[in-house]
Each structure stands twice: as structure tokens, then as C-alpha cells.
């Protein structure tokens, strides 16, 4: 209240004072002395905190003292309590792991949540994000196994798998992963040929580099795990770039022709297989037909043999007649037996067919349907007359 009333008093007169109880300096003699201000502030604080009269009396008896030390100790004590609480409790996010040291030695790894530590004994060395994927890239020119130079660009994605190892065993993880990646890439590229790196062997190259890099990191014991490794580019030197482009184009043409040939083969082979299957089926059918026919002939012969054994002469005559009928049914010549004599007359039906078209057509139709056993006596007589007339005509000519 004294401080407030000092501000509220009107200026001028005998009560013209500053907030610290000092009379205003006349004629603007300058700012007050800092030591005096500090002494007055200390006195006011002592009064508010309950040390007023004794401290004032001591101050009046010993003006060199700056006031009691009680309030300062109290303030320092409060600040110490706040600072201790601040250093005792700490929080860890969901994606983080806290590495705690006790007396400078690794103690434990804390998970997400609110945790406490002993002040001045325990220390949180680092909070490591174990879910964030970090990335590093490199691009360098390297020597291949066939003594060619190739420029390779690679991207490595990794994360901290073990927080204590990641914090305590490596000082600069980014530099460590970059150096290890370059070393693994140079080793694998130096064992491969240029053509393999530029064309079909890139996937295999990536797998080998990733495997070797993870082995390096495990041997370093740095707690880093690889997520993905990609070789983004691999190109030959600029001086031979055009030649390599021609090689790649030729290889693409080769692959295109192979694909076309494969497509043609896929189209032709089923047709050929179908034809082969059909021929096999026809051959099998023919085999079955021949076997069946042979079996039938054998059965027929067995039947004829049985009949022959019963009546040999009759069976022999029947076989002879049927054989002669079968032979002459396929012949273009006709033989007629004349009843009045022993002469066998020959009928050249093929020549008669050439003489007259009409007679030829009739003879052809007649000869095609001619059957000796089916001719009647009148038909044989008409045929005989036709033959005699034809012979007379030729004799006269």
C-alpha cells in the first residue's frame, strides 16, 4: 500500500517522492543511484515476506548491509524446487524412445508416456524417433569388373532400429550410412560387368548392395535397419553413350523378335498338334479297320473251309465262278460264248465308244451296268447281232 500511495500522491510540495520513498531530485539532477534502488527493493521484499522490523533496524544500525538473506534464500529455494521438478519429469512421444543414462552409463530405454528420473544422476541422452524413415543419396563414378567406368546413383532409406545403439555407438548416422553405402556399392559394382549393370542385372545388383550394406551396419553395431535401397540410375561415360544406346536398341529389337517368334509358335504349334492327333486317330482307325477286315476274312475262310470239307467239288466250282465274276465285273472287255460253236467272241467296247459318241455313251452305260449272270437270252441275242453288224461294217471298210 505504501508503494501505491507513493505513486498516487500529487507531484510537487513536500510529499513529492518517487516510488521508492526518495524525494524527487531538484533541477533534474539525473537518475537515482542503482545501489540505493537495490537496497530499497530488498527492504520492501523483506517487509512483504515478514522480516520487516528487524531487518530495518539492522539496516539502520549497519548501513553497509543490503538487507536480510532470508527472502533471497526462499526465492532460491523455490527456484531450486521448480528446476528440480523440471529435471525429474519428462515425456516421450509415441514414435520416440528415450535413452537414459545413469552417472554417464547406459541405464535403460523408455517407451512412450510420462517418466521420471533422478536429478543430477539420471540423464536423458536422446529421444530417438524409431518410426521415421530417413533417406540418403549418393552418385559416384566407379570401375567395373571388365575395367569400364560407370556412373551409379543410389538412394538408401533407413530407420533407427535400436535407440541405445543409434544414440551411443554412432556420432553422425547420416555420414556413417553414406560412407557404408558407397563402400558396399563400390564392392558390388567392382565385381560385376558393365553390361550387367546397365541392362538386366540391376535388380540383382540392388539386392547384393542391400545385403552387403546391412552386413556392414550390423558389424558396426549402430542400430540402423535398412528399409529400401534403389539404384536410380546407371549410365556409361559420355564418350561412349551413343554406342551403348545402339546396343540397348539392338537388344530391344532382339527381345521383340523373340516375342514375335514365340507368339507365332504359340499359334502354329496347337494347329500342328491337332493335325498330328488327327493323323494318329486316322491311323488308329485304319489299323482297327484292317484288323477287323482280316478277322472277317479269316472267319469267312474258316466258314468256307468247313463247307469245302462237306462238298469239295461244289464248293470249288462256286469259288471259281465267284472269282471269275469279280474279275470280269471290273474289266472293260466282254467275252461271249456262242452256243453253235466253240469260238469265243471278243467285244471291244472301248473302241466302239470312240467311234460314235452316242454309241459310246450307250455302251458305257451298258457296260457299267453289264452283268453276265443277269442278262437274259434275248439281250444276249441283241448283243450278238450288234457285234456281227459291226464286224461286217469293218470288213467292208
UniProtKB/TrEMBL annotation:
- What are the residue boundaries of the Band domain, all occurrences included? 87-248
- Pfam families, alphabetized: Band_7, HflK_N
Identify the domain of life.
Answer: Bacteria
Gene Ontology terms: biological process: proteolysis
Subcellular compartments: Membrane
GO terms under cellular component: membrane
Quote one Gene Ontology molecular function term: peptidase activity
The UniProt family comment states: Belongs to the band 7/mec-2 family. HflK subfamily.
Outline what the protein does.
HflC and HflK could encode or regulate a protease.
Under NCBIfam families, the record lists: hflK
Full protein name: Protein HflK
Give the species this sequence originates from.
Answer: Reinekea thalattae
Amino acid at each position: 500500500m505504501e508503494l501505491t500511495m507513493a505513486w498516487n500522491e500529487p507531484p510537487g510540495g513536500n510529499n513529492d517522492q518517487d516510488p521508492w520513498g526518495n524525494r524527487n531530485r531538484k533541477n533534474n539532477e539525473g537518475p537515482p543511484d542503482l545501489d540505493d534502488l537495490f537496497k530499497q527493493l530488498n527492504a520492501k521484499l523483506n517487509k512483504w515476506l515478514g522480516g520487516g522490523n528487524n531487518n530495518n533496524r539492522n539496516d539502520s544500525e549497519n548501513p553497509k548491509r543490503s538487507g536480510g538473506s532470508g527472502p533471497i534464500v526462499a526465492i532460491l529455494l523455490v527456484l531450486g524446487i521448480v528446476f528440480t521438478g523440471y529435471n525429474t519429469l519428462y515425456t516421450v512421444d509415441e514414435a520416440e524412445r528415450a535413452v537414459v543414462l545413469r552417472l554417464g552409463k547406459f541405464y535403460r530405454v523408455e517407451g512412450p508416456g510420462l517418466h521420471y528420473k533422478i536429478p543430477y544422476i539420471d540423464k536423458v541422452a536422446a529421444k530417438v524417433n524409431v518410426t521415421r524413415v530417413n533417406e540418403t543419396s549418393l552418385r559416384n563414378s566407379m570401375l567395373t569388373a571388365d575395367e569400364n567406368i560407370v556412373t551409379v546413383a543410389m538412394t538408401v532409406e533407413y530407420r533407427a532400429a535400436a535407440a541405445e545403439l543409434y544414440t551411443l555407438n554412432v556420432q553422425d548416422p547420416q555420414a556413417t550410412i553414406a560412407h557404408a553405402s558407397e563402400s558396399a556399392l563400390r564392392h558390388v559394382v567392382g565385381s560385376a560387368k558393365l553390361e550387367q549393370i546397365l541392362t538386366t542385372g540391376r535388380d540383382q545388383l540392388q539386392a547384393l548392395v542391400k545385403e552387403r550394406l546391412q552386413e556392414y551396419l550390423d558389424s558396426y553395431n549402430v542400430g540402423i535397419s535398412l528399409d529400401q535401397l534403389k539404384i536410380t540410375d546407371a549410365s556409361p561415360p559420355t564418350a561412349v553413350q551413343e554406342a551403348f544406346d545402339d546396343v540397348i536398341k539392338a537388344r530391344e529389337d532382339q527381345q521383340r523378335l523373340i516375342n514375335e517368334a514365340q507368339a507365332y509358335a504359340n499359334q502354329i504349334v496347337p494347329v500342328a498338334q491337332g493335325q498330328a492327333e488327327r493323323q494318329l486317330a486316322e491311323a488308329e482307325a485304319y489299323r482297327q479297320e484292317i484288323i477287323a477286315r482280316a478277322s472277317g476274312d479269316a472267319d469267312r475262310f474258316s466258314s468256307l473251309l468247313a463247307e469245302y470239307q462237306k462238298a469239295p467239288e461244289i464248293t470249288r466250282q462256286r469259288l471259281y465262278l465267284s472269282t471269275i465274276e469279280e474279275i470280269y465285273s471290273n474289266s472293260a472287255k466282254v467275252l461271249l460264248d456262242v452256243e453253235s460253236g466253240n469260238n469265243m467272241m471278243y467285244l471291244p467296247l472301248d473302241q466302239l465308244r470312240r467311234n460314235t459318241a452316242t454309241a459310246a455313251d450307250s455302251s458305257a452305260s451298258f457296260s457299267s451296268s453289264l452283268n453276265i449272270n443277269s442278262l437274259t437270252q434275248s439281250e444276249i441275242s441283241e448283243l450278238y447281232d450288234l457285234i456281227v453288224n459291226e464286224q461286217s461294217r469293218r470288213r467292208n471298210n
